[in-house]
């Protein structure tokens, strides 16, 4: 209809529609333009349809109007258009109608460009830093950049798409509105969000309120109380425990008000449970003022009066977790857990996500929310952050959106942001998720409250991650004994002059008459009094105790020494196994699986049924099927775990035409198998976290090749191996680590067995290297069926998957249980002159060589469970005469594999009866040779030495 306007025709149509509804809603020059053509432009076609109604909120800031509206530079300057009739100051007609149209459109377009720029770039100009450091950005929002000038400021424009402002406003009013919304104490990055609905929602929410929270008096008092409690708590510890490490929150006290409100808001939006992950900064303050941990317990830990109680165990007070129930102001009950945390920054993130997912899966409810609190340096610096963020949208790992809060004190220990990241914001790592990021000045508590509300509501509404980057400062050094002026003299000269966050807020409230100074002082007095009482109490009793772990879901499970738990029968009736194999081959009607994959599944059944033969994957599948059948949940995740790296598992079949998956094991119960992202730390951390809230299931993580777990070493060291000792937290997680020397080179041979064995202590983990499918079957079932919950590290086969000797009979699955040691069944003990003790795949090479050499005087004993060892080893070696040489044979170089461990620990179980020596590969800095033929030669030498 307005074709003469080219690509701007839509815009003009929109204006025309508005004009038709209300002529006053469009600028005067447009009014005259439309009026001059009797409500339609001269070029309008008679048959043209009526223009569409205008949208009140544009769906997407960037798509809203039109860079293309910028006129050609030859167009008349817009201010000359003010009388819009083409009359200049002397009233003489100067421009043609077409020129008038272009000029009018041009100035309107410039205003829209400016509006758009505020939405996209406004955050760069916001007042975020309580220390007042200039942002250092180009003056992009200057009027001149948009072809506008001061002379346009009092011109009225339509405010189509801007919320919270009259339909027409002067440019001055529009700019004031946008500045308040986008450039005050809140800078928001949201235009990168791909979903128009999310962008539109945020835009409307922010612009309609000018991005300020409206607070009633009780809310104001609550914020003040939280700021006061935060400040007083730190001062109190400082006074009573001078120089003790506490990782003070001072400078970031608003975090406490933020968390307080966040929990409250989450409750109001239906969240029933929150799992929180955070590092050291302000953690004691959070424990006391958010988690409701009685301050007397914190003080008792500072007093630390019972040296005998924690010998070799426990953790420092600012790593401990806690959980609590809270009634929110809407009356909702909300359970909050602060996850136990190692010093290793950010590694708790995937653990929290896994815990949340397990909780969500348990009740099939989504009202559990992850909340992660980060430090600015760690958030950008630690790679596990990216690994965890990448889980956010994946079906096997998503948790319906995480709220991230960055306590951005603009420093990491002694390192400045300019040395710790290449990006402007420490949150720029989140750009991968295209989620909203709110940067906020932590010295403006009410702005903090505004973004907290927005973030909580956004997460609940859209189930997407959202980030609050709270700018603040660190009042002291990294910890309280640290001198920050060695390295940041200028920053600390500024910090030294600053009143506290509470004081700034009190001044504002007193200034606006919302409270009196006396009232503010009373809040301080009450807060101090509570702490005095708690300290008195702490010193009158015994309050420094180990955390309790065995409540609720966990009450049926135990940790501690393995020997305390009886073995359980793990065999399953043959008829049940055969029936399970039949059911696994049933294909849904119409489903067309890949013929070869189906063949593999059917062959499993036929071999078992007709030849009583079970290969590795059959043992594994039957372990899962039988556990599922008895009501267990099974969750397996790892890179390419559905098919299996070695194309053996085929836990998922795919329809050849539709690609639809079919999961045969899902017929037996809740079986989930996921191909994970190519991440170890993130995914292993997630599965570990999952296991913490799923003691009643079997949770497994599989490494592609065993050695890749070292990308997740922190999760193993800091959580899996030590959580029971430090935090009394148990886990039944299973790690499947393909391992074995097959000539594939240094990187695919070795799962770093020795590292697990050096971590082994106090029965903290189980380390197994089963050599038969039946052993694997019984071991997996035992892991679930015993009430013991200990991480289980399993070295799993590669070539053995298809090794005809590494098979079991179905009867072996039907009867018996996991054998920690497999004694020699062949050699007559009386004739034995040499005992070979080994673990894993090398057994088959040894057995073959013994047969070839007809060495009936050699016994081969298999250590199937390397840790914990028990009397079964002594039993297996008992038949042999004292003094018989006992040779530990391993494929690994001498300095790797189990040797050092075996050499150190064996005597505890067999005494000095049998002299122990070693056959292994020579000491080596890398696990294996890169040459296949060298590997073969080494293997030959190893076997020769074993039978020497
Ligand atoms: C993985 C890891 N590397 C190094 C450290 C040592 N460290 C502890 S705190 C810290 C600085 C953290 O800075 P930031 O994340 O900004 O948190 P802040 O202390 O400023 O709150 C460092 C380097 C650590 N705890 N974890
Ligand atoms: Mg920091």
* Extended strand count: 26
Bound molecules: thiamine diphosphate, magnesium ion
Oligomer: single chain
Portion in helices: 25-40%
Structural class: alpha/beta
Rg on CA atoms, Å: 35 Å
Strand order of the largest sheet: 3-9-10-8-7-4-6-5
Structure in words:
The protein is α/β, with parallel strands linked by helices. It has 31 helices and 26 strands. The strands form six sheets. An eight-stranded mixed beta sheet has the order 3-9-10-8-7-4-6-5. A seven-stranded mixed beta sheet has the order 15-12-16-17-19-18-24, with helices on both faces. A five-stranded mixed beta sheet has the order 21-23-22-25-26, sandwiched between helices. Helix 3 runs parallel beside helix 4 (171-182), helix 6 (217-240) packs across helix 7 (254-268) and helix 10 (348-363) packs across helix 21 (681-692). It is globular, with a radius of gyration of 35 Å. It binds thiamine diphosphate and magnesium ion. Magnesium ion binds next to helix 11.
Summarize this structure as a short list of keywords or feature phrases.
8-stranded mixed β-sheet, binds magnesium ion, 7-stranded mixed β-sheet, binds thiamine diphosphate, 948 residues, alpha/beta, 13% strand
């Amino acid at each position: 209809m307005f074709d003469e306007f080219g690509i701007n025709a839509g815009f003009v149509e929109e204006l025309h529609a508005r004009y038709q509804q209300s002529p006053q809603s469009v600028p005067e020059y447009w009014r005259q333009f439309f009026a001059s053509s009797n409500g339609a432009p001269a070029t309008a076609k008679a048959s043209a349809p009526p223009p569409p109604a205008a949208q009140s909120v544009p769906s997407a800031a960037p798509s809203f109007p039109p860079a293309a509206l910028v006129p050609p530079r030859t167009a008349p300057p817009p201010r000359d258009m003010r009388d819009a009739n083409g009359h200049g100051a002397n009233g003489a007609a100067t421009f043609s109608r077409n020129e008038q149209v272009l000029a009018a459109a041009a100035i309107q377009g410039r205003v829209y460009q400016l509006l758009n720029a505020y939405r996209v770039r406004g955050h760069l100009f916001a007042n975020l830093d309580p220390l007042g450091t200039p942002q250092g950005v180009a003056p992009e929002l200057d009027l001149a950049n948009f072809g506008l000038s001061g002379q346009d400021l009092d011109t009225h424009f339509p405010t189509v798409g801007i919320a919270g402002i009259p339909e027409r406003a002067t440019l001055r009013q529009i700019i004031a509105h946008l500045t308040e919304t986008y450039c005050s104490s809140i800078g928001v990055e949201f235009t990168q969000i791909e979903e128009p609905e999310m962008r539109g929602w945020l835009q409307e929410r922010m612009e309609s309120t000018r991005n300020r929270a409206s607070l009633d008096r009780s809310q104001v008092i609550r914020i003040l109380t939280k700021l006061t409690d935060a400040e007083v708590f730190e001062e109190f510890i400082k006074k009573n425990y001078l120089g003790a490490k506490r990782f003070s929150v001072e400078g970031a006290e608003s975090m406490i008000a933020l968390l307080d409100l966040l929990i409250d808001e989450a409750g109001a939006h239906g969240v029933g449970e929150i799992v929180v992950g955070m590092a050291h900064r302000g953690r004691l303050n959070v424990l006391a003022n958010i988690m409701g941990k009685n301050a007397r317990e914190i003080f008792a830990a500072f007093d630390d009066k019972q040296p005998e109680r924690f010998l070799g165990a426990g953790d420092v007070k600012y790593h401990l977790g806690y959980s609590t129930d809270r009634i929110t102001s809407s009356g909702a009950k909300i359970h909050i857990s602060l996850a136990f945390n190692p010093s290793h920054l950010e590694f708790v993130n995937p653990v929290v996500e896994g815990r949340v997912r397990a909780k969500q899966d348990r009740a099939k409810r989504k009202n559990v929310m992850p909340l992660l609190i980060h430090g600015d340096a760690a958030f950008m610096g630690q790679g596990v952050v990216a690994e965890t963020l990448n889980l956010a949208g994946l079906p096997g790992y998503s948790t319906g959106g995480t709220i991230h809060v960055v306590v951005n004190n603009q420093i990491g220990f002694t390192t400045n942001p300019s040395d710790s990241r290449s990006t402007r914001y420490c949150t720029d790592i989140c750009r991968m998720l295209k989620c909203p990021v709110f940067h906020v000045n932590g010295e403006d508590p009410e702005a903090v409250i505004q973004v907290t509300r927005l973030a909580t509501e956004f997460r609940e509404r859209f189930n997407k991650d959202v980030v609050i980057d709270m700018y603040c400062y660190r009042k002291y050094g990294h910890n309280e004994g640290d001198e920050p002026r060695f390295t940041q003299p200028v920053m600390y000269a500024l910090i030294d002059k600053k009143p506290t966050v509470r004081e700034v807020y009190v001044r504002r409230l007193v200034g606006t008459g919302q409270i009196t100074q006396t009232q503010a002082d009373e809040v301080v007095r009450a807060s101090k009094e509570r702490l005095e009482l708690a300290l008195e109490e702490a010193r009158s009793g015994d309050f420094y105790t180990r955390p309790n772990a065995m409540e609720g879901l966990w009450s049926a499970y135990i940790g501690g020494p393995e020997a305390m738990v009886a073995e359980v029968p793990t065999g399953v009736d043959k008829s049940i196994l055969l029936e399970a194999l039949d059911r696994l081959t049933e294909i849904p009607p119409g489903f067309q699986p890949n013929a070869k994959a189906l063949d593999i599944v059917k062959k499993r059944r036929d071999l078992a049924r007709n030849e009583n033969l079970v290969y590795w994957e059959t043992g594994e599948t039957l372990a899962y099927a039988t556990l599922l059948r008895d009501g267990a949940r099974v969750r397996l995740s790892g890179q390419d775990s559905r098919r299996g790296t070695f194309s053996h598992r085929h836990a998922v079949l795919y329809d050849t035409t539709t690609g639809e998956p079919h999961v045969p094991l899902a017929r037996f119960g809740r079986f989930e198998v996921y191909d994970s992202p190519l991440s170890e730390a993130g995914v292993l951390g997630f599965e570990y976290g999952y296991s913490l809230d799923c003691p009643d299931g079997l949770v497994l993580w599989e490494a592609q090749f065993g050695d890749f777990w070292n990308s997740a070493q922190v999760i193993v060291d800091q959580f899996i191996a030590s959580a029971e000792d430090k935090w009394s937290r148990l886990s039944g997680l299973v790690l499947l680590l393909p391992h074995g020397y097959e000539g594939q080179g240094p990187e695919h041979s070795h799962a770093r067995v020795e590292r697990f064995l050096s971590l082994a202590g106090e029965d903290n983990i189980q380390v197994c290297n089963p050599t038969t499918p039946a052993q694997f079957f019984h071991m997996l079932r035992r892991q679930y069926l015993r009430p013991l919950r200990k991480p289980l590290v399993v070295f799993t086969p590669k070539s053995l998957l298809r090794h005809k000797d590494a098979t079991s009979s179905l009867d072996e699955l039907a009867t018996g249980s996991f054998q920690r040691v497999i004694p020699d069944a062949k050699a007559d003990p009386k004739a034995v002159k040499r005992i070979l003790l080994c673990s894993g795949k090398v057994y088959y090479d040894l057995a073959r060589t013994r047969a070839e050499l007809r060495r009936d005087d050699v016994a081969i004993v298999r250590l199937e469970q390397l840790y914990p060892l028990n009397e079964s080893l002594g039993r297996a070696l008992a038949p042999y005469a004292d003094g018989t040489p006992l040779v530990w044979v391993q494929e690994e170089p001498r300095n790797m594999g189990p040797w050092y461990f075996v050499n150190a620990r064996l005597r505890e179980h067999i005494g000095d009866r049998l002299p122990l020596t070693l056959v292994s590969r020579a000491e080596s800095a890398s696990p294996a040779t890169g040459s296949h033929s060298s590997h073969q030669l080494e293997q030959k030498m190893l076997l020769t030495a074993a039978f020497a």
